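thread: overnight batch results

M.L. [08:02]
morning all. the overnight job finished for the chain we discussed friday. pasting input first so we're all looking at the same thing
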Amino acid sequence: MKANRYFFSKHTIGVLFCIGLAALTWLVGNLSKPATQLYTVEVNYPKAALGELMDAQTTSTVKVELEAIGFTLLRYAFSTPTLSLNVSELRKLGRGRYVLSKAMINQLNKAYFPDAKLLSIHPDTLSIHYHKMQRKKVPVRLQFLFPLQEDYRIDSYQIFPDSVWVSSQERQIDTLTAVYLKIKKNNKISHSLSGDIPLKSTSRIHYGTDKINYSLQIIRVTEQLMQVPIQLQHQPLSAEVKLLPDRTNILLSGNMQTIRELKPSDIVIVADYNQRKERTIPLKVSKKPHDIEVNLQEHTQVEYLIIHP
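M.L. [08:03]
and the structure it wrote out:
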């Protein structure tokens, strides 16, 4: 019984192998023979007239019929090129209607399908319409789409250029307020970033630059309590003003290295006598490092006494 099972297993494998080999032989044989195939390819017009853009009615795709061996046709099925057409080289039939000359079809054949024969292009008449474009300079805005490691934050960033010229239809330009770009990362970030973001112009919108350079500073942050004196501003000349209390605790948060090197004199908390109320004077932060946040942890106002000589 075991011998029969063993024989059946070997027999089955042998049959499957023969079937697979036959299928492969048939496939290779057919792919080695000439054949024809239709493909849909995109079309662009890179040399549009200055100050003009292509209208949405312009032909953007065509079907090309190719003749070649099966292996070549299979390759084009996975990777079809985009045809670039120079409008000045097309033959004009009428308003917005153009045809490809036989010479231009031969040029496209050599440039984009060198190992195949380009039999035809459908439609044979292209619809090409222009509209006048408007220009507008708009700011560039970055959107950060990535998580940060705990205790890290974005300190600052720079982009260049920080604004770009955009050309498009008037109705699109009127509603355009900025160019929004995204920086995406999947992993949690704990280090500074820099790089380029490409700007790709199309037949309907054109950017004055092809890329935006960015530099993003990411720092490790910490918190620390510090006690500092309160300084009185605009003290009257005719009397002495005593603040109660004359010192306060503040909470610092920001760049860890900056906080470590901080001195009490780097933070100034003031009470402005001109802003006094009946019994109190509000406190405000008058001086601090730019990359440090200061919160009045203990007091937002202090009492005062006026002592006359």
